[in-house]
Design brief:
Strand order of the largest sheet: 17-18-19-21-20
Shape: globular
Strand content: 35-45%
Number of helices: 1
Oligomer: single chain
Largest sheet: 5 strands, antiparallel
Structural class: mainly beta
Length: about 450
């Protein structure tokens, strides 16, 4: 496994650096400064991370940790003012961790369970027997998580669980000891629990999502050996057949919170051909095949499907690149970066008023344009931002015009029309590597 990836507004990654796992995520949804990204080592060489995502918390100060009169330390949610960061929540050796603190054993997965707002987020730890334990994050980055009373059993799963596959912060694909797969997403944005799971046929291949704005429009893609499946809260993308619905029981009613569909694949594409899938709300879906081809369905209002031709939103089209593609990354909802096998980085789609100056274009781009070469792999920052690591492993930041309106150092971003080397972010937090070496940031084991 090369990395665990969440293509969300604040995506966490677990990347293996010289065989050791590291967590990488932006600091918060409101502070887009690349200087404040979280990069943290989660284990030793040879250790693997089974599941992970991040929570958004206030940076710790001693005064925040004191209990107020009549309350317990770490229970009251912090105010929305101040400086915030992200903390990794992950599963290693079947143990749930909050940052470096072990919380619970016999856990196979962890996911967001629901939230009333960003500061009172809940999440669930899933054990081997299929029980979900509710947690609520603490006040700040040093406060242990406060466990809420109670647990519930996931309905319709009869056998013990052995593995959890990441789809999105709010969803997992759970595998039982006898090899069956179940889609599970308990996110209760209206404070109603979803307790059932939907069985999907076949063996797990890949999954993906991208949810930058309203959670109500969330769509998730899962590929198994039996086909492409889409979880949609509102509308189905493409053509397909209904598989089942998740419902949520409130005080008086049962609410439908989403349905699963089996989606028709592009012509001559088999499930085992698919390398990655990204779904953008109910707007677009992209597939990347192991043969280096990229396909899309959905809207084309900003040429995000790689052409200015009028396309049927429900029919797949192949995006034409001059060479084979090994990685894709959706940006700013309606744009797509694509990395070729030779290391050339391309972009097309949303570019109003020259949003990405590196493209040298002043409006939306209707076909892929080359913006950088000698790239080894790319990772997402926030909705707009992207890091491209060159063949020496050195991270470059791809600026956008939004960077003029946020607090970046002028010496860090002297120009917006070219990739910028980030001088300290990874160097200071990767002690495994030799900073005096000519290869400062050599990343390996990346399965792009």
């Amino acid at each position: 496994m090369g990395y665990i990836h969440s293509a969300n507004e604040s995506p966490p990654y677990v990347i293996y650096v010289n065989g050791a796992p590291y967590f990488i995520t932006p600091s918060s949804n409101t502070n887009r400064s690349i200087k404040n990204m979280t990069v943290k080592k989660l284990g030793y060489v040879g250790e693997s991370i089974d599941d992970a995502f991040s929570v958004y918390v206030k940076k710790y100060t001693p005064s925040q940790h004191r209990a107020s009169s009549g309350s317990r330390a770490g229970v009251n949610p912090p105010s929305t003012s101040g400086d915030y960061t992200t903390v990794p929540i992950y599963v290693k050796h079947n143990t749930l961790f909050h940052d470096d603190k072990p919380l619970m054993k016999d856990i196979i997965g962890v996911l967001e369970k629901g939230e009333r707002d960003a500061l009172t987020k809940q999440y669930g730890a899933i054990d081997k027997e299929g029980y979900v334990y509710s947690y609520r994050k603490g006040n700040d980055s040093k406060t242990p998580i406060i466990q809420n009373p109670g647990k519930f059993k996931i309905e319709s799963i009869g056998k013990p669980l052995k593995k959890s596959y990441y789809i999105h912060d709010t969803a997992r694909l759970l595998e039982t000891v006898d090899g069956k797969l179940y889609f599970f997403s308990p996110a209760n944005f209206q404070e109603y629990d979803v307790k059932q799971a939907i069985e999907l046929p076949g063996k797990f291949i890949t999954a993906g999502s991208y949810t930058p704005t309203q959670q109500a429009n969330i769509c998730l893609g899962v590929v198994t050996s039996e086909g492409l499946f889409l979880f949609a809260k509102k509308h189905m993308l493409g053509k397909g057949e209904f598989i089942g619905s998740l419902s949520s029981k409130g005080l008086k009613e049962t609410y439908k919170v989403g349905s699963v569909y089996k989606i028709s694949l592009p012509e001559n594409v088999k499930p085992e051909d698919i390398k990655s899938v990204q779904v953008i709300e109910d707007k677009n879906m992209y597939l990347l095949t192991r043969q280096g081809k990229a396909y899309s369905i959905g809207d084309n209002d900003h040429y995000q499907r790689g052409t200015k031709e009028k396309l049927d939103p429900s029919e797949w089209n192949e995006i034409k690149y001059p060479e084979k593609i090994k990685q894709i990354e959706v940006k700013n909802v309606c744009g797509l970066f694509a990395l070729s096998e030779s290391g050339d980085l391309y972009y097309h789609g949303y570019n109003e008023n020259g949003f990405y100056p590196i493209t040298k274009h002043k409006s939306d781009i209707d076909s892929p344009v080359k913006v950088m070469d000698n790239v080894q792999f790319i990772i997402s920052g926030h909705v707009e931002s992207l890091f491209a690591f060159d063949n020496e492993g050195i991270p470059y930041y791809i600026p956008c015009t939004l960077d003029n309106r946020v607090l970046y150092d002028k010496d860090l971003l002297p120009s917006l029309d070219k990739p910028v080397v980030h001088p300290t972010l990874f160097k200071n937090i990767l002690p495994d590597l030799n900073p005096s070496s000519s290869v400062l940031y050599k990343f390996i084991d990346i399965n792009c």
